[in-house]
Design a protein that fits this description.
single chain; 13-stranded mixed beta sheet; about 325 residues; alpha+beta; Acetoacetate decarboxylase-like; 7 helices
Length: about 325
């Protein structure tokens, strides 16, 4: 993507993230937790048809740590059906190994704004032959949705992801409900730019799915639409300049304190998700370019709004209210007979 086209792509994605609507969605999504998961899933499917695009912006200094999977049989069980563990490279021409990845970042999206820590197993999709990032666990300090838990979020406190005046990246995350923690620090001044493996970073983002702690029958893979230039290279952090004090995630399949590779992205990364996209519609860079051009030329589509959640929630409460009134009237009639 050329510079001017990239600027237009970025601006259009930024226009999809409106704090006023995100605040409303964050507040109202809490009411949706009371709905059965099947109802929540149908509600999400309905919303995807009405709102074709969701903006997803990862702010600067996102951190990615690659770990070698030491127990591939357990890792395989964590995958949804149709995937298999494979050896992959983190960097271009780098060593290949079965890989799990921990990532921590702050994001601004059409549906939430906040910190996320995500833990992936890298696998190959058997149907397409493409690499895929399988989200197996995550923490967040804001609202969220996943196929297993439905509307959820606010899982960790503290939820520290920040830089210091000493050139450090500081991460301190704890989920008190399950005693999981991830505490690390990175020296940001010691890294150098290095090219990334295209199969992992480009192809792998064309199919993202759910497994592990959030594997579900409602899980559906989705594709990220993005400028490939932003994942061509990143800042490689030498391992001696990373300190992981605690890591309770994926420790059944990795040595949790010994990553083999680490990078940060010192710039924002802009993604868009086409919510009504057919499964496996993007299989290569040609398909990706087509979706980018379709997004850039699209006009008049409905953006995500707080009203998208407000109306069905208010409708649900109205139905409950009418049922309650009906029950009260019925009981009063019984007492009077």
């Amino acid at each position: 993507m050329k510079k001017e086209e990239s600027r237009n792509f970025i601006k259009k994605i930024e226009s999809l993230v409106k704090p006023q609507d995100v605040t409303a969605i964050s507040f109202l999504s809490g009411f949706s937790k009371s709905l059965p998961n099947k109802t929540q899933h149908k509600f999400m499917l309905s919303g995807k048809k009405k709102v074709p695009y969701m903006g997803f912006i990862v702010d600067p200094y996102s951190l990615f740590l690659a770990f070698k999977i030491t127990n591939t049989s357990v890792a395989q069980e964590m995958l949804p059906e149709g995937y298999e563990i494979v050896e992959v490279s983190f960097f271009k021409n780098g060593a290949k190994f079965p890989m799990a990845i921990a990532s921590v970042f702050t994001a601004r999206t059409s549906g939430f704004i906040g910190m996320r820590a995500e833990f992936y197993v890298i696998a190959r999709n058997k149907e397409t032959g493409l690499l895929s990032w399988i989200i197996c666990d995550y923490e967040t300090n804001t609202n969220s949705y996943d196929p297993k838990n439905g509307f959820c979020g606010y899982t960790c406190d503290p939820a520290v992801f920040t830089t210091s005046p000493f050139g450090e990246l500081l991460v301190d995350i704890k989920n008190s409900s399950n005693n999981k923690e991830f505490i690390a620090s990175v020296d940001l001044e010691k890294g150098n730019s290095r090219e990334l493996d295209e199969s992992l970073w480009i192809e792998g983002n064309l199919i993202v799915d759910y497994g592990g702690e959030i594997k579900s029958e409602f899980s559906e893979p989705f594709s990220l639409i993005f400028d490939t230039e932003m994942v061509k290279e990143a800042v490689n952090i030498p391992l001696e300049h990373i300190l992981i004090k605690k890591n309770s995630y994926l420790n059944d399949i990795i040595d949790p304190k010994k990553p083999l590779n680490a990078v940060i992205f010192p710039y924002s990364q802009h993604f868009v998700i086409k919510q009504d996209l057919q499964k496996y519609a993007i299989k290569n860079e040609k398909d990706l370019d087509f979706q980018i051009n379709s997004f850039l030329s699209a006009t008049g589509f409905k953006p995500m709004s707080g009203d998208d959640i407000k109306k069905p929630i208010f409708g649900m409460f109205l139905i409950f209210y009418l049922i309650l009134i009906g029950v009260i009237i019925f009981l009063v009639i019984l007492l009077l007979l």
